[in-house]
Amino acid sequence: MALLEVRHLKKTYTNRFGTNQVEALKDVTFSMEEGEYTAVMGESGSGKTTLLNLLASFDRPTSGDIILNGLPFRKIQDKDLAVYRRKNLGFVFQDFNLLDTLSVRDNIFLPLVLAGEKTEEMKKRLSPLVKVLRISDLLDKFPYEISGGQKQRTAIARALITEPKLILADEPTGALDSRASYELLHMFEQINQAGQTILMVTHSTTAASHAKRVLFIKDGTVYHQIYRGDKSRDEMFRKISETLTVMASGGKEYA
Ligand SMILES: Nc1ncnc2c1ncn2[C@@H]1O[C@H](COP(=O)(O)OP(=O)(O)OP(=O)(O)O)[C@@H](O)[C@H]1O
Q: Which residue range or ranges hold the ABC transporter domain (predicted)?
């Protein structure tokens, strides 16, 4: 059984008066096995954020299904969604979303505090994580005292500490310089090699070339996908660039 199944997902936004409709997702179907690392790419307005919001259970689809670990989101009541999300999903955003009033340590602990986890368990999970992410020395600092790359690594620790089934990353390198981006992508690869399933939305061909698979969204549907297989990263980068060029020029080739 796949870890994540997305079936015929459709999302139509309607304005308040019901006079204007935008079909952001028309019919998106794909699945992800446990341990996969998938990047989602597509032009601006193609529906990537919409897809991520639905996968994050921040919004409900117009029709279609999202099934994580055998449980359709449809069956989860609105009042239970926040707890479900906290237990099963980890989030890494472009702008880190750390709280400036909390130390690095407390930012990382936050989802476990909200879940009522015991202090002992929180500490046990923290130490291996911060070692891998190289933020052990920063735990008593505050977000405004650390660099962008360090903030993003803190955000990754916060996402991983709940041991989520799936990490959803929205443009995680978007606010980082090239060195910090490289470090983050390297870290994602390490985390993935350790078994973590990751889905990352990105505009960056470099970022996507680190993933094991790239899904291309165009006009609200899955237009094409590339598997890394035994391709080198350079080769993967070239394939992604070619696909983006074909897509931008009307995209008949794969349609
Ligand atoms: N809340 C909303 N209400 C109405 N239309 C929306 C809403 N959110 C998105 N849309 C429309 O749905 C379509 C898909 O938007 P979406 O934000 O998912 O694209 P995207 O691929 O993430 O774009 P970008 O790369 O620029 O972030 C666009 O036409 C957008 O204008």
A: 4-244
Q: Report the atom number in ligand 1 closest to the C-alpha of 49.
A: 22
The Cα 206–Cα 15 span in angstroms is 36
Task: State the residue for tokens 């923290």.
Answer: 126
Complex ipTM value? 0.96
Closest among 34, 78, 44 to 60, alpha carbons compared: 78
- Which atom from ligand 1 is nearest to the alpha carbon of 11? 12
| 3-state class percentages of the chain: helix first, strand second, coil last, to nearest 5 | 40, 25, 35
Number of C-alpha atoms within 13 angstroms, CB side, residue 7?
A: 12
> What does the domain layout of the chain look like in residue ranges?
4-23+33-99+166-248
Q: What is the dihedral of CA 25, 30, 35, 36, to 10 degrees?
A: -70
Dump pLDDT digits (tens) for 28-61: 999 999 999 999 999 998 999 999 999 999 999 9
42 CB near ligand 1 (under 6 Å): yes
* Ligand 1, atom 12, residue with closest C-alpha: 24
pTM of the model: 0.92
Q: Hey, what CATH class is 4-23+33-99+166-248 in? A: alpha beta
Q: Which two tokens stand for residue 65?
A: 């299904």
Q: Residue 119's Cα: distance from chain center in Å?
A: 28
Q: Cα separations (Å) of 102 from 99, 127, 140?
A: 6, 18, 9
Q: Is the CB of 46 under 6 A from ligand 1?
A: yes
